[in-house]
Design a protein that fits this description.
2 domains, 241 residues, Rossmann fold, alpha/beta, 6-stranded parallel beta sheet
């Protein structure tokens, strides 16, 4: 077995059950707008988010933001995240930014763990440096993990809104290596539920990966990319390591 030093855990749907968080936040948005919640409308939002972020990943290095939002990564990310509300509700940028703030704050209000999250992080925290590496907002990470009693096991958080670039781009992981000052790729293991973000991202960065395939999906990615390990439940990682 390879000896890793750093475990890079994805957050949403790897440590946190993101479905319930998103449902709560979307419900708060509709309440703010005076719109009655329905499962059909929520499913439309889930589909919209999925398409929006897939397109965002593809255009990562080509995206041009307005000059007034280029002065900082924080402003750039705020503009990007607000676009999904503009597209979904057909609102102005100002209104969409308001909704984005409500949404991000609401994501911190509730948190549901993935089965085995506490057990896994507790068992591994004495042997490894554990990082959260996420495309989601960094502002919500500590609150989410604190609510499931797992924040104590996290050594650091690395997110797209810190770097201005998202997984699966190799530059995201290069930024992590710069922060840790460890440039040996063999020291890292990327753990996540997403083939396109986590497994492909690890491959792009020449790192090993562990795919949390709790839904028993087929491993379909372009090229010969495959996860180094594949698990059905998060706590299976304990036995692997």
């Amino acid at each position: 077995m390879k000896r890793y030093k750093y475990l890079l855990f994805d957050l949403d749907d790897t440590l946190i059950d993101n479905f319930h968080n998103v449902k709560h936040a979307f419900t708060k948005i509709l309440k703010h707008l005076g719109i009655e919640y329905s499962d059909a409308e929520f499913q439309k939002w889930l589909n919209h988010e999925n398409v929006f972020w897939k397109e965002r990943e593809q255009q990562e290095l080509e995206l041009i933001t307005p000059p007034e939002y280029n002065s900082s990564i924080e402003l750039m990310i705020k503009w990007i995240r607000s676009q999904r509300f503009m597209l979904f509700f057909n609102f102005s940028l100002e209104k969409s930014m308001e909704l984005n703030e409500i949404y991000l704050n609401s994501l911190q209000e509730v948190s549901y763990p993935i089965d085995g999250a506490y057990e896994t992080l507790k068992a591994l925290s004495d042997k490894y440096q554990i990082f959260v590496s996420t495309n989601g907002p960094s502002i919500a990470v500590e609150s989410k993990l604190t609510k499931i009693n797992c924040w104590q096991f996290i050594n650091d958080v690395y997110s797209a809104d810190m770097f201005g670039i998202m997984k699966p781009h190799a530059q995201f992981f290069n930024e992590i290596k710069n922060r840790t000052n460890e440039h040996d790729n063999s020291c890292y293991l990327v753990i996540g539920d997403s083939l396109t973000n986590d497994v492909v991202g690890a491959s792009n960065a020449n790192m090993d990966s562990c795919w949390l395939n709790s839904k028993k999906q087929p491993c379909i990615v372009s090229g010969n990319i495959k996860p180094t390990y594949e698990i059905r439940k998060l706590n299976e990682l304990i036995n692997i390591l």
